[in-house]
Design a protein that fits this description.
Strand content of chain B: 25-35%
Strand order of the largest sheet of chain A: 9-8-7-10-6-1-4-5-11
Number of strands of chain B: 16
CATH superfamily of chain A: HUPs
Order of helices and strands of chain B: EHEHEHEHEEEEEEEEHEHEHEEH
Oligomer: heterodimer
Structural class of chain B: alpha/beta
Distance between the termini of chain A: 57 Å
Helix content of chain B: 10-25%
Number of domains of chain A: 1
Number of domains of chain B: 2
CATH architecture of the largest domain in chain B: 3-Layer(aba) Sandwich
Number of helices of chain B: 8
Distance between the termini of chain B: 53 Å
Number of strands of chain A: 13
Largest interface: A-B, 80 and 89 residues
Radius of gyration of chain A: 21 Å
CATH topology of chain A: Rossmann fold
Shape of chain B: globular
Shape of chain A: globular
């Protein structure tokens, strides 16, 4: 089995983002970037499946400007075999990304695609679902467990009311939730080794995919600020304030 | 304008998130139809017909929909999509999985977690864990969106008189088999619609200590939530998680106990009316967004609070 893992380069989760003064987006110049945390979980799960003997190859794919190759290298340093990079300066929406991933998954003959459920920048939570729909493959969204079996995959999903178990056939598309695993750190020797692993470079045109935008970002603004309130020093004081000042209990 | 709202229900009860979504649909304006896909779900269809502002309820009562399989509901939406300018579902795990899938079938770019309707084509949605708000305008012929339920009031569930139309299912996807669910049983209010939420973080130290918060929640008639740290540590199940990638809550009172206040957690609760934080670290970022902060060890503070309320 070949596993394809799409990864996204995002502003590091620990950075507090700032909205640009011209309201066109958030400040990304000179800001620390990293692999989207949910994508790290996806890479880790693919590597574990390979280590368990269920997969022969793990391929990392990313799309965007030149620097996205660094994020692919991060996946290669974790242990993936090779990369595919779709180079474009265009603003990419989830539907366009899903179409590119479909083309890459078809080209590679990947039986399993593991994606993060959501990227922590746009918070869309769409690409995996869209890819499954486009490829007409079963979707396992928000998984906290996946096991290969004779029928395909037994998965456990995190849903609002608890957990849900599904059996899905192979080939499939799954998206990762937080409890699936704890991603490994890349060791120094593996980071050195990753520099020599191959990355194929493609363009959306070569994949034959229309990536035109369907959405226009009119403006990006700061949310209303929430001011710090007062400190209390006893249960009696807190309860009194909640009853008589805030009137919420 | 004609809008299809996808109802979320558990076969017997219509979930409140559906009512929030109807309110968002009413703000777009136009006829609102409600799709109820389920099995033996007559009670849900009856309840749906009583929601004020709903024109027609489409009921697909079929064994295909005995469980909520994303693919099976999505093809039902696709089959009906030509009749609608908008398709809307709550931004719950049900709606978040469903709408993008249906949108891709219809070659539409979905819009996630809408918190404000500007006009029929233009919507506001939080990005970067709510640290920025994006206003986006869609050029797709059908707008397919999920709705942030806490940003919209509940629609009136008693005064409507919608017509009910029975529709056929659009086929069952054979590549997915429902095995089962392990649901959290609780007598407490549901987390996302509770008026009061008591949440615990890493500071709780273990799952047993959450009993303190449960007792406090029961005294206040509230629900119990948790930060990601507490869920990852295995103190409580995943459905307790409040935050950017968990549940979004906006109760009248949010009581954060032993939660430091990472931006990912704040994303899920900062629209609460009143926030109270109890933390032994006076530098904890949670105090910067709290209306009332109490810099005290939670193992001292919570029992004191219980006694004061008792």
């Amino acid at each position: 089995m070949k596993i394809l893992v799409p990864v996204k380069r995002v502003i590091d989760a620990n950075i507090r983002v700032r909205v640009k003064s011209d309201q066109t987006g958030v400040e990304t110049a000179n800001v620390k970037m990293a692999m989207n945390p949910f994508c790290e979980i996806a890479v880790e799960e693919a590597l574990r499946m390979k280590e368990a003997g269920h997969a022969e190859e793990v391929i990392i794919v990313s799309a965007g400007p030149e620097k996205c190759q660094e994020t692919i290298r991060t996946g290669l340093a974790m242990g993936a075999d090779r990369g595919v990079f779709v180079n474009t300066e265009a603003t990419l929406e989830p539907l366009a990304i899903a179409k590119m991933l479909q083309a890459v998954a078809d080209k590679e003959g990947a039986e399993l695609v593991i994606l993060g459920k959501q990227s922590i920048d746009d918070d869309n939570n769409q690409t995996g679902q869209m890819l499954a729909a486009l490829m007409q493959r079963p979707l396992g969204s928000y998984i906290s467990k996946i096991e290969k079996n004779d029928g395909g995959f037994a998965i456990t999903r995190e849903i609002d009311a608890g957990l849900e178990k599904l059996q899905i056939t192979c080939p499939a598309v799954v998206t990762t939730d937080l409890r699936l695993n704890e991603p490994r750190y890349a060791s120094l020797p593996n980071i050195m080794k990753a520099k020599k692993k191959p990355i194929e470079i493609l363009t959306p045109e070569e994949l034959g995919v229309d990536i035109s935008n369907r959405m226009e970002v009119v403006q990006v603004t700061e949310p209303p600020a929430r001011d710090a309130g007062v400190m209390v020093s006893s249960a009696a004081e807190l309860v009194e304030k909640l009853k008589n000042e805030a009137k919420v209990i | 304008m004609s809008i299809l709202v996808i109802a979320e229900h558990d076969k017997s009860v219509l979930l409140p998130a559906t009512l929030n979504t109807v309110t968002a649909a009413a703000q777009v304006g136009g006829d609102i139809d409600l799709l109820v896909a389920g099995h033996d779900c007559g009670a849900v269809a009856d309840a749906a017909a009583k929601i004020a502002g709903v024109n027609k309820v489409l009921v697909c009562d079929s064994s295909t929909h005995a469980s909520d399989i994303t693919e099976n509901v999505a093809v039902l939406i696709q089959a009906r999509s030509a009749d609608y300018s908008h398709v809307m579902a709550p931004a719950t795990t049900f709606g978040k999985a469903l709408i993008p899938y249906a949108a891709a079938l219809c070659d539409v770019q979905a819009i996630s977690d809408v918190s404000e309707i500007v006009d029929a084509d233009t919507f506001v949605r939080p990005i970067y864990a709510g640290n920025a708000l994006a206003t986006v305008r869609s050029s797709d012929s059908i707008k397919m969106l999920t709705v942030r339920t806490t940003a919209f009031e509940l629609a009136d569930a008693d005064t409507g008189s919608a017509s009910v139309e029975t529709i056929d299912d659009a086929g069952a996807n054979e590549s997915i088999e429902f095995i089962g669910q392990m649901l959290s049983e609780s007598e407490r209010p549901e987390l996302t619609s509770a008026k009061i939420v008591v949440s615990g973080g890493r500071g709780m130290q273990n799952g047993e200590n959450f009993a303190m918060l449960e007792k406090l929640a029961d005294q206040l008639g509230g629900a119990v939530g948790a930060s990601r740290a507490a869920v990852d540590a295995g103190f409580v199940p995943n459905d307790y998680q409040v935050g950017q990638t968990g549940k979004v809550v906006a109760p009248d009172l949010y009581l954060a106990v032993g939660i430091s206040g990472a931006i990912q957690h704040l994303a899920g609760m900062k629209d609460s009316k009143v926030i109270v934080a109890i933390n032994n670290d006076e530098e904890a970022p949670i105090f910067q967004v709290s209306d009332y902060g109490w810099n005290e060890d939670l193992f001292t503070a919570v029992p004191a609070l219980q006694e004061e309320l008792g």
